[in-house]
Amino acid sequence: MKYSTKYRIFLLLMFLSGKIIAQPKKDAGEKENIAYLFTYFTGNAKGEEAIRFAVSSDGYHYKALNNNNPVISSEKISSSGGVRDPHILRGEDGKTFYMVATDMVSANGWDSNRAMVLLKSNDLIHWTSAVVNIQKRFPNNENLLRVWAPQTIYDKTAKKYMVYWSMKHGNEPDKIYYAYANADFTDLETAPKQLFFSPTNGSCIDGDIIYDKGKYNLFFKTEGNGNGIKKAVSDKLTEGYVLQDKYLQQTKEAVEGAGVFKLNHSDEYILMYDVYMKGHYQFTRSKDLTHFTVIDQDVKMDFHPRHGTVLPITKQELNRLLKQWYTVESVLQTARNQAINQNNIVLDRVNQTLYLPVNYNTDLKAFDPQFDIFNQINIMPKGKLDFSKGPVNVKVSIPGQQPKTYSVRVAIANNPVLKGYYADPEILYSNKTAKYYLYPTSDGFNNWSGTYFKCFSSTDLVNWKDEGKILDLEKDVSWAKRNAWAPTIIEKKVNGEYKYFYYFSAAQKIGVAVADNPAGPFKDSGKALIASRPKEVKGGQEIDPDVFNDPKTNKSYLYWGNGYMAVAPLNDDMISIDTSAIKVITPDNSFREGTEVFYRNGKYYFLWSEDDTRSENYRVRYGFSDSPAGKITIPENNLILVKDAAQQIYGTGHNSVIKVNGKDEWYMVYHRFTRPKGISMGDAAGYNREVCIDKMDFNADGTIIPVKPTVGGIKPIR
């Protein structure tokens, strides 16, 4: 570039005067990491074994890209048709990205894979790939059973990218190996060499190496002689790792897939891992990579990841990802106002409508949905809006995409009555406290694997307070540690003092715990009350207890059974039954489970659930009797609670009943599939359920008028 003589003299004078003019600079943030990319897979079904992306602006709040669908086709990049455990790395040049993944479909068995996938990209959007089958590529691997969870790191000494992963040969435990990739990242150019094995001779899998303060920290999962995440440390990348014999996970649950990343502009690290038996991720924070604090309460994701990794990214990279895979619909589902029940947001892409259900007493005249958007995204109007007169049109603009306008409706929704996943609700009015109490199954755990019970209290049946855990099988029950299901409770006066007898299912048996207050603490009796089925019954399970006190005789009865309905009088101690008086009173073939008994106007009503809780047709029928253990008469049209497809309400069943206000005023408490996602979840809908309350009325002859399940629920009782 040439300058005139006058301009050169001007610059010289400015320099000599100390007033040098700053020249324009490049954007200081052009290469600065300001966001995060999370790459993960979602489950063991074939469609879930694929690479997905999510992004975050702070490392705590993540939003799935591409509507949580795969961003790369597993069929095109793998030999098995599926990939798992993706790990992503930024190259030394700052602009090339490397990703590796397990080439595996779990349906073929855990010892079915011998290969990994290597991927490379210059823009995070377009990827080249290659399959490396270790058994075929390298000799002496005839008895190789599996190749799991590869990761990549740059070896500054060798000036090559090193891939490391776990392998299992024959009866030996899994060990971590490494090899160097070729320059094109399409193959491994060196034979696998052992990097680390567990000194306890257990399996060693899911390695993750982080360099910090001159040390290489190798996080791994050990199995066989104690399960969990440990760490080994070395001064060198490829040798000399010394075990720090301490578990680093902050949970007693089974974990795998440790992933560590450093927060942008911070000296803190995040250690995250897959709590795979419970279907969730745990995030922890640390400054020294030794002591970790759980931060789950700060982390939000609109997806359920399995074994993934996080990569810090720049503003330009974030924009590129958003343009390619983020949608207006994704933006609208980020509404995070505390009044919104997040599980029940309904977005209709066809009609471009959004429904936001909010808590009772929410001010609809000035409500801000608080859409969680990146700086690059514009939404108008925003802030507090008036939804009291109906829907409001909201326009969303994403760079590189056509703006869209959605009609947003905000409405009070008192169903479900509890935020989160709960099922099999029992309800009690306590004379001692003059409050109502709900006792549900804690739901949302894969295959009904919850291990604790909670309690909720209310004065109006609409606003519920979480009273916390009242019984934990793992801590409080000696005879059963799994499947905490379907409780029931009764309030009784014993020697002039109120006592609460809580009957519950655990490990397909029925136990009883006792407390002085309706919210506990409860103390287990120390043994199962019902541990085997009646003699004449050949199938079914000993679950779903119901307790009923006969107002005519003040005698209490316990009912139970899946596949059959049994009844027995409770002894005066309320923690044992009269075994000589057990009767099987199954009403008809429609009975599946969930007995509920109540008394009204001289009749004993028996309610039960039909079909399977995983079925959208799970529903409630009833009969009545002249005695609490007598023959059940089934009226015509005895179906009283069914799904309502028009309202997207499915799987309505397993109910209890409450009479309120000292009047002939009745309500049914039941569970349904989570709405609206439950109907598309398959069997998982059966353990992702929600508790609802709706009005129950009777005809003049005492027959029950079918209960209409609603989204709005009931108004607070006075």
UniProtKB/TrEMBL annotation:
Gene3D superfamilies tied to this protein: Glycosyl hydrolase domain, family 43
Cited Pfam families: Glyco_hydro_43
Record-linked CDD domains: GH43_Bt3655-like, GH43_BT3675-like
Entry annotated with the keyword Hydrolase: yes
GO molecular function: hydrolase activity, hydrolyzing O-glycosyl compounds
GO terms classed as biological process: carbohydrate metabolic process
Pathway: Glycan metabolism; L-arabinan degradation
Stretch forming the signal peptide: 1-22
Keyword line: Glycosidase, Hydrolase, Signal
Record-linked InterPro entries: GH43_arabinanases, Glyco_hydro_43, Glyco_hydro_beta-prop_sf
UniProt family annotation: Belongs to the glycosyl hydrolase 43 family.
Name of this protein: Beta-xylosidase
Organism: Pedobacter suwonensis
